[in-house]
Design goal:
The complex is a heterodimer of chains A (273) and B (465). Chain A is α/β, with parallel strands linked by helices. In chain A, strands 2-1-3-4-5 form a five-stranded parallel sheet. The longest helix of chain A has 27 residues. The N and C termini of chain A lie close together (11 Å). Chain B has 465 residues and is an alpha+beta fold. Chain B is 49% helix and 15% strand. In chain B, helix 6 packs antiparallel against helix 7. Classes of the chains: A alpha/beta (273), B alpha+beta (465). Chains A and B meet through helix 1 and helix 4 of A and helix 6 and helix 7 of B.
């Protein structure tokens, strides 16, 4: 990926927006959101302080953001007594129930975690079971110190929002092609011949309809974050025996390969493979 | 044979600064142990560059710590072998022919020198070998009490016993039996024991007082540590936001404009500030973790130097590029904050020494590993540790800093608290390591060496992976 980051002027029509809940003072919180927005086209982040548990959930339901962004600690500067994990858990539960048409919940959305906690850096990659509550975890310091990181975070948040919508649509459509293959960008079963069918088997024998986040977590953590059928540019170069720093033509090579082999299923914009 | 040598210790505490380097140069040129056979000099023993006793090799090895290189000695060995029976010269008239006797000679001379050097080092109160354990200079109350017990034991041993003479008029058997377990102890012995015990009690009181003071101070420091931790954590959010404000503002103006320049500088300054705070935040946060990580000293030192660079720049102190003797130097699991504590204590002592020496300051760090330990040597060119203080510097509350006045704030009071090196020693010892004063490399005056056990092979493997 190019290491140049461009600043994007704010546009009036921002189709995708995240609701960002942080207990800190708005003056201390907005600069982080602004920095990410500066580096990402068509992404809006709206800052708010946490309300009581039930009221906050109701707020999500009413306003229906494209994504939720939470600070880890919500209980320091405010009266609320819960933390991000509790809120995220309840959110996921309701989304799961909606999938089985139990509640009137509005739907499933990506939940992103931002924290000042350095410790988070060590556990940045999603936990391997794929049952992590959060789609993305970021350390706030990275946004301050590195513009490329800020741009990457924005890109990934946007990708998460778009793809969750895509997944939700696929889930509703109820076609014969299994949801996972659909999500990964295949239009028919024949196209999946080169992949191990066990990948899909994870979802096959489920009795209930699964919510979008189950698919999202699986795809991101098992297929995108870990090399397997999909690999990133660095690993591609390594497999081809190329030293990226010395291969000036790599971009040209990629341009030949992309039409044939680039991944264009969900989350591709945030996780190019 | 005859053998005589003069031992010179090249330290500024012994030699006036003005002649220090010229003496050292002379020693390098002309020092060493020469060899004479039957009145004639045998070359090249004792010539510059010759190391026939392995003194320089041993110095490089750094297991035997006191100075013992060739340039520390001026001396000669004189062999009397008129018939040429025992020692033979080689045809080229260089060196003696190597045989059993010449090897024995070499060994004898080396060991004699080392014995003398050890004795002197011990008297100077310096650590003799790198692995020296239980190195303790002072007697304490426990030792005194043990001495008292020993005296009593000796006095009551069977050979010393003087049975009580029975009253000749008493013929009763019971009396005789009753008297059998009793002994007399000479009054002199009792006086000795009493003296030792009295001293022991007095020592004990002193020690307890010192310990209580130390505990109180440590309590203060630990709660301060917690406060600092809280503070840095809180500050980070706001500081990060401020840095971003500056960055975004600076991007709104062209870089060459006046506003652009000022804002650019503001962003830089805040960015530096942010990194400094992050360093502390990381170090303090790690304290809360139960699991310790093995510490890669390349990383530890690099991070520390980055955080201390602004201060050093302000004080016009040159921080030399650290020297790493190995690519992978990993200490056993230690808190990041403890390493930070060690380095900052060394640094603060160095700053004070440099200030007193009124010289452009230089600090050098050498890191390496040997024999299952990793070591870090922290050198400065300050005014050095006077010989009289060498024993004391690791003791609690010993400080040469000017006592804080009534108007100084707490920061000053703590900096000169005299606990710095004691804390470093406590940290090192708690992990099975040690800290000591060692000979400074060329160009420096004081060198502190801290050692920790190395991370085990399995831990290193995990770490590397």
């Amino acid at each position: 990926m190019s290491s140049e980051s461009k600043l994007i002027p704010a546009s009036s029509e921002t189709p995708l927006w995240y609701l960002y809940i942080d207990d800190e003072d708005a003056n201390a919180v907005e600069p982080y959101a602004d920095e990410v927005m500066d580096h990402t086209a068509e992404l809006r982040i709206e800052v708010a302080t946490p309300q009581s548990f039930d009221a906050q959930l109701q707020d999500f339901n009413d306003r229906m953001p494209d994504g939720i962004l939470l600070d880890l600690r919500l209980d320091r500067e405010t009266d609320v007594s819960y933390r991000a994990t509790a809120l995220a858990q309840e959110f996921r539960t309701r989304a799961t129930e909606k999938a089985s048409a139990v509640t009137e919940w509005f739907g499933d959305r990506p939940i992103v975690l931002w924290s000042t906690d350095e410790k988070l850096r060590n556990s940045f990659t999603p936990d391997k079971t794929g049952h992590d509550l959060f789609d993305l975890r970021c350390v706030k310091d990275d946004i301050v110190n590195d513009e490329n990181k800020a741009a990457l975070i924005g890109r990934q948040m946007k990708s998460l929002a778009i793809s969750y919508h895509t997944l939700s649509q696929i889930l509703v459509r109820n076609s014969t092609l299994p949801v996972l293959w659909h999500a990964l960008g295949f239009s028919s079963l024949d196209e999946t011949y080169f992949l191990d069918p066990r990948i899909e088997a994870v979802f096959e024998r489920r009795d209930t309809v699964l919510p979008a986040h189950e698919y999202a977590r699986f795809i991101v953590s098992h297929l995108l974050e870990h090399p397997g059928p999909l690999i990133d540019e660095k690993l591609l170069a390594a497999r081809l025996g190329l030293d990226l720093e010395k291969s000036a033509d790599f971009a040209r090579l990629l341009s030949y390969l992309k039409p044939i082999a680039a991944y264009n299923g969900v989350f591709a914009e945030g996780w190019p493979r | 044979m005859d053998f005589k040598a003069y031992y010179f210790i090249h330290l500024t505490e012994f030699v006036p600064r003005s002649v220090f380097s010229s003496i050292k140069n002379t020693a390098e040129e002309r020092g060493g142990i020469r060899l004479y056979r039957n009145g004639y000099r045998v070359l090249p023993y004792g010539e510059k560059g010759d190391d026939w006793l392995g003194l320089d090799a041993s110095t490089r090895n750094r297991t035997f710590l006191p100075q013992h290189a060739t340039y520390n000695f001026f001396g000669f060995v004189e062999l009397n072998d008129p018939e040429g029976e025992v020692f033979e010269e080689t045809a080229s008239r260089e060196y003696l022919l190597e045989n059993e006797t010449s090897k024995e000679l070499q060994d004898f001379v080396y060991r004699s020198l080392m014995a003398a050097v050890s004795r002197i080092a011990d008297l100077r109160g310096r650590k003799v070998t790198a692995s020296q354990q239980g190195w303790k200079k002072s007697t304490d109350s426990n030792q005194r009490m043990s001495a008292a017990v020993d005296i009593l034991k000796a006095a009551t041993s069977p050979s010393e016993v003087v049975p009580i003479t029975t009253d000749p008029s008493s013929t009763s058997n019971e009396d005789a039996q009753a008297n059998q377990g009793q002994v007399t102890i000479p009054t002199a012995v009792i006086a000795d024991v009493v003296a030792e015990l009295t001293d022991a009690i007095a020592d004990d009181k002193e020690e307890k007082k010192a310990l209580i003071e130390e505990v109180a101070m440590l309590r203060v420091l630990s709660s301060l540590g917690m406060v600092i931790g809280e503070f840095t954590h809180e500050v980070k959010q706001t500081l990060g936001a401020t840095t971003l404000n500056a960055k975004r503002l600076s991007r709104m103006f062209p870089a060459e404009s006046q506003e652009g320049r000022v804002l650019g500088q503001l962003s830089q300054n805040l960015g530096r500030f942010n990194q400094y705070v992050s360093y502390f935040d990381r170090a303090v946060q790690d304290n809360n973790r139960r699991e310790l990580d093995p510490q890669d000293l390349h990383v530890v030192v690099a991070n520390w130097l980055k955080s201390v660079a602004p201060s050093a720049e302000r004080l016009k102190i040159t921080l030399h590029e650290p020297v790493f003797e190995d690519d992978l130097i990993v200490s056993c699991p230690i808190h990041t904050s403890e390493w930070a504590s060690v380095l900052f204590n060394f640094y603060s002592n160095a700053i004070k020494a440099i200030r007193r020496a009124k010289t452009p300051g230089e600090i050098g760090i050498v890191v390496g590993r040997s024999k299952g330990q990793v070591f870090l040597e922290f050198s400065d060119n300050g005014d050095g540790v006077p010989d009289g203080n060498v024993d004391n510097i690791f003791n609690a509350f010993f400080t040469t800093s000017t006592p804080a006045g009534a108007y100084n704030d707490d920061q000053d009071a703590l900096q000169g608290s005299g606990l710095g090196l004691k804390i470093v020693r406590d940290i090192a010892q708690s992990y099975g390591g040690e800290v000591s004063l060692t000979d400074a490399p060329a160009g420096f005056v004081t060198c502190f060496r801290v050692e920790f056990p190395e991370a085990s092979a399995e831990l290193k493997e995990q770490y590397v992976l």
